[in-house]
Specification:
The protein has 85 residues and is an all-alpha fold. The protein is 81% helix and 0% strand. The protein has 4 helices and no strands.
């Protein structure tokens, strides 16, 4: 069952997704810096933000793959097959 966050991401436009990704990455960097200097009250926030970044990147990549032409998909499957060997 998909999480609520994943379902919300599917409703975003491509531009909103990319802006959300940049905001989340900058937030993560700030949190890491603050944690290194004085520590965070709840360090598990870092893990949550990392997972949010992964969700965003996954959605961006899946949309890129859906937008590929059949020729591009053919090349992609060949590359994947070579990696598996």
């Amino acid at each position: 069952m998909p999480s609520k966050k994943y379902i919300e991401l599917q409703e975003f436009t491509d531009d909103e997704l990319k802006s959300e990704l940049t905001e989340t990455v900058s937030q993560y960097q700030k949190l890491k810096f603050d944690h290194a200097l004085r520590g965070l009250e709840n360090p598990l926030v870092l893990r949550e933000v990392r997972r949010d970044i992964a969700r965003l990147k996954t959605e961006v990549r899946s949309r890129e793959i859906k937008a590929m032409t059949p020729e591009q998909l053919e090349l992609r499957t060949k590359k994947l097959a070579r990696r598996r060997k």
